Amino acid sequence: MTVTTPFDPVRPLMGVEEEYLVVDPRTREVVPRAGQVVRRAAEELGEQVCTEITRFQVEAKTPPCAEPAGLERELRRMRDAVAAAARAEGLAVVASGTPVLGEAVPPPITEDSRYDLGIENYRALHDEQAICAGHVHVHLPDRERVPLVCNHLRPWLPALIALMANSPFWTGRDTGYAGWRVLSWGKWPVAGPPPYLEGLGHYESVVAGLTASGALVDPATVFWDARPSHRLPTVEVRVSDVPASAAESVLLALLVRALVTVSLERVEAGDPGPRVTGELLRVAYWRAARDGLDGHGVDPHTGRAVPVAEIVEGLLEHVRPALVGSGDLETVMRGWRWLRAAGSGAARQRAALKARGSFEGVVDDLVERFRA
């Protein structure tokens, strides 16, 4: 997401990165052929598509967009190009946070000197790295403000996990969770919700200490779910599973943009953000990953277990002024109504298992839904 446009505090530019899994359409298992898919897709997408840490994964990213309609067009074009490239190679791609079928542990790692350093440092933590997330970047060139904005984002990250939960299965087993990827990813030393930060200087000193401790290979391995991008003038929110559809990615991006907009306004008014404890956020993450949209979550402000829908409604009320200002309120409310009726990506995967009677049927359903 290269940004050259001046900053717009009402409708800042947004961009989405999505990770997909490559599957064999005959066996429905994940296969380590992402490199072939990326090379072919790059003929249309160029640098918008690349490999990821495992050879099961493809990563694609949109250019910066201001309008939700433009973002959705870019997401659909991106998914169409990746799906067509996979078909040309006799393969398919799916948007799922975890592999439904296949021998995924340990995954084949993409050849790269940086990944070699990571393997040396993190070792068996890579065993469950065949996981796919959706990342949203929001233009925020004032880097001094980003850590304080992240303080305001922290309490709402579990709600985003529940909304986009799309990883109920792991290699032929129902985990009992809606978002198993979150639990798998949470094992890493610098992952999950960011700490409460006093400002950019505090952020940089924490990162320096983590680097000195050996917990980081480089600045890109600060894997907190909300962070200053190490390469772009953006705040990056990377908390959710890869959304099941392009429309859900748009919903996620609009909510994140609205959260950033509201948070920036509060920071500029002198509010450094609520001091929600890391212990409470950890529990809220767990409950959001377990229940998704179908049960209860933990209100990170009070610690009470409440219906997830109530937490999401609270999020929508929190960001309503920003959605009204950007003109995105009706788009977001329409997306939320649809999601409540259709169920999360995890619920739809489980519905496909029930309807089709096998995990192979789940993969078929994911392949069909990839561009829908």
TrEMBL record:
Pfam (any one): GCS2
SUPFAM superfamilies found in the cross-reference section: Glutamine synthetase/guanido kinase
Tell me yes or no: is Nucleotide-binding among this UniProt entry's keywords.
yes
- Membrane-spanning intervals of the chain: none
**Could you cite one Gene Ontology molecular function of this protein?**
ATP binding
Query: Keyword ATP-binding: yes or no?
Result: yes
**Superkingdom of origin organism:** Bacteria
GO BP annotations listed: modified amino acid biosynthetic process
Q: Which InterPro entries match?
A: GCL_type2/YbdK_subfam, GCS2, Gln_synth/guanido_kin_cat_dom, YbdK
Keywords attached to this entry: ATP-binding, Ligase, Nucleotide-binding
Reaction catalysis annotation: L-cysteine + L-glutamate + ATP = gamma-L-glutamyl-L-cysteine + ADP + phosphate + H(+)
User: What's the Enzyme Commission number for this chain?
Assistant: 6.3.2.2
> What's this chain's function?
ATP-dependent carboxylate-amine ligase which exhibits weak glutamate--cysteine ligase activity.
Family according to the record: Belongs to the glutamate--cysteine ligase type 2 family. YbdK subfamily.
Q: What is this protein called?
A: Putative glutamate--cysteine ligase 2
